[in-house]
């Protein structure tokens, strides 16, 4: 004979709890669900005493049932009345602070640390303000020897227009990580979105101050502006919508690049006797000329250089977003974070290997014509100006390939650290257990996570990897420190030492600057301190929760 008492049924998913239902403010809210959607697990029910009317005192406990727990169906005892299932409304306030040490993922920190070396090398041509320049389509000056030629070839092929797409992808990845942590910690989706918008708004201000005081080639402002747009438009979008938009943006850039190449091919086909003896594909036809020194770096008056940098920042900020490279790569990073690709590289090994091999190949092959043309090995002729667009478009593929490569490297380093920990634990067990037995290895962390001291028994990265990761954890501070070590020393308004350097010696200076930032980051890592720029940004973003 079946039990006639009806089972416990949750409220309708389109309605919030009734007014009489008590909603505890501190219960966590499942990630990815809005207030209109009920969580998957009900809170615990505390029944009233027999004959007592249920009220707020018998609200569910603050400790939630684990996720995916089934809805209880046991009928209430006589006299208790039907139990109520109460869904917890998330708190619109920030319920937790920034990322903790044990929550960090190895691959992004490793990528950011090495990416800062690439950024230092990519900015080297800017500081050679007194060098001779004959190629309008390249930021590199004329090579003064074979070593200069080699450095310029490597930087143009491997680094130029390939580094900031990688950083944009990592930036988007971090946005989703921050959003997910906040929602899982009890902050509502709207509260987490406001937190992201606030953080990106402060980044724009950081970029403006950076450009005002030191360096006009700032990237923080563009990342902040693109982050504002994407956080407002795509945080609630599905993975499928994200990928469709990414493919559409990539398609637009590829079609635009092919159209630009085709246009210049047609212009090159017009006989010069029709155009007055001057090819229409010659940059001088458009009134473009090479000027030396370049930009604010070559100005001796600091105030005039400051005005120049402010104007350039105001123009470059929207242009960097409208050119679509930054938002495209950032949205791709958001999609990858939804899939937890860098947290679990072993699960996505085939995708990572394919992306690394194909992406890097496209990026390097796309840069070859411009690299060889600048060195005079290849006569680009009409292809000189379109090559700039080809170089930028193929740079997105290289940026994605680099990110995939760092994901694979981070997974391999984490597995190696876990193996070392297991061997150490086994050796300690054999040394302390007279019978020689062991209790078995400790469970390994996710393959992409930092197996550092916060995880208990697993050692973190060692040696050079540890140092690079320390830089990656403080990427904002180290990025700004590069400008402090370069601009006042090399610019004409400072000591002006950039006038005496070549491409090779400037590259050596850039590596030395990166190593100095590494020493700075390692000292802070040993002391257990965050970077000063990170501390300031977190206090401005999180407020009182920054210390949580």
Automatic annotation (TrEMBL):
Residues 1-14, 39-53 have a biased composition (Pro residues). The keyword Zinc does not apply. Residues 54-66, 445-458 have a biased composition (Low complexity). Pfam families: DUF418. Residues 462-543 form the DUF418 domain. Residues 1-84, 421-458 are annotated as: Disordered. Residues 421-431 have a biased composition (Basic and acidic residues). The chain crosses the membrane at residues 110-130, 150-176, 196-213, 219-237, 244-270, 313-338, 350-369, 389-414, 476-495, 507-528. Keywords: Membrane, Transmembrane, Transmembrane helix. PANTHER family: INNER MEMBRANE PROTEIN. This is DUF418 domain-containing protein. It comes from Brevibacterium samyangense.
């Amino acid at each position: 004979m079946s039990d006639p008492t009806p089972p416990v049924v949750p409220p309708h998913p389109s309605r919030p709890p009734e007014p009489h239902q008590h909603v505890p403010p501190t219960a966590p809210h499942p990630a990815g669900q809005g207030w209109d959607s009920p969580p998957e697990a009900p809170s615990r029910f505390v029944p009233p005493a027999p004959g007592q009317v249920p009220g707020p005192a018998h609200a569910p406990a603050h400790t939630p049932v684990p996720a995916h727990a089934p809805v209880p169906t046991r009928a209430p005892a006589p006299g208790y009345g039907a139990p109520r299932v109460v869904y917890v409304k998330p708190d619109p306030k920030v319920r937790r602070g920034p990322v903790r040490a044990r929550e960090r993922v190895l691959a992004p920190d490793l990528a950011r640390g090495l990416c800062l070396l690439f950024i230092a090398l990519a900015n080297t041509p800017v500081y050679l303000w007194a060098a001779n320049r004959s190629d309008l389509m390249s930021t590199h000056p004329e090579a003064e020897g074979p070593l200069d030629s080699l450095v310029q070839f490597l930087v143009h092929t491997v680094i130029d227009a390939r580094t900031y797409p990688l950083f944009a992808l990592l930036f988007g990845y971090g946005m989703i990580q921050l959003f997910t942590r906040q929602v899982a910690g009890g902050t509502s989706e709207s509260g987490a979105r406001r937190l992201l918008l606030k953080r990106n708004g402060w980044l724009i201000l950081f970029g403006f101050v950076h450009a005002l005081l030191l360096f006009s080639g700032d990237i923080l402002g563009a990342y902040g502006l693109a982050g504002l747009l994407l956080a407002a438009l795509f945080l609630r979008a599905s993975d499928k919508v994200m990928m469709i938009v990414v493919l559409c943006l990539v398609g637009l850039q590829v079609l635009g690049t092919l159209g630009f190449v085709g246009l210049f091919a047609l212009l090159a086909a017009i006989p010069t006797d029709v155009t007055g003896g001057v090819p229409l594909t010659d940059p001088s036809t458009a009134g473009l000329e090479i000027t030396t020194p370049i930009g604010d770096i070559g100005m001796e008056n600091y105030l005039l250089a400051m005005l120049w940098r402010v104007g350039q920042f105001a123009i470059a900020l929207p242009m960097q977003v409208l050119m679509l490279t930054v938002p495209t790569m950032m949205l791709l990073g958001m999609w990858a974070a939804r899939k937890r690709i860098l947290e679990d590289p072993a699960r996505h090994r085939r995708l990572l290997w394919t992306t690394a091999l194909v992406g890097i190949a496209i990026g390097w092959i796309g840069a070859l014509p411009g690299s060889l043309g600048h060195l005079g090995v290849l006569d680009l002729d009409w292809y000189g100006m379109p090559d700039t667009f080809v170089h930028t478009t193929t740079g997105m593929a290289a940026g994605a390939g680099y990110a995939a490569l760092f994901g694979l490297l981070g997974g391999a380093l984490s597995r190696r650290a876990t193996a070392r920990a297991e061997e150490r634990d086994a050796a300690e067990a054999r040394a302390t257990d007279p019978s020689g037995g062991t209790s078995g290895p400790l469970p390994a962390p996710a393959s992409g996570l930092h197996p550092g001291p916060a995880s208990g028994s697993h050692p973190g990265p060692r040696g050079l990897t540890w140092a690079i990761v320390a830089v990656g954890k403080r990427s904002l501070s180290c990025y700004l420190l590069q400008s402090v070590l370069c601009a006042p020393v090399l610019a004409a308004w400072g000591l002006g030492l950039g006038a005496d350097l070549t491409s090779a010696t400037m590259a050596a200076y850039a590596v030395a600057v990166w190593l100095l930032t590494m020493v700075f980051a390692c000292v802070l890592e040993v002391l257990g301190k965050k970077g000063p720029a990170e501390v300031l940004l977190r206090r401005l973003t999180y407020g009182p929760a920054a210390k949580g």
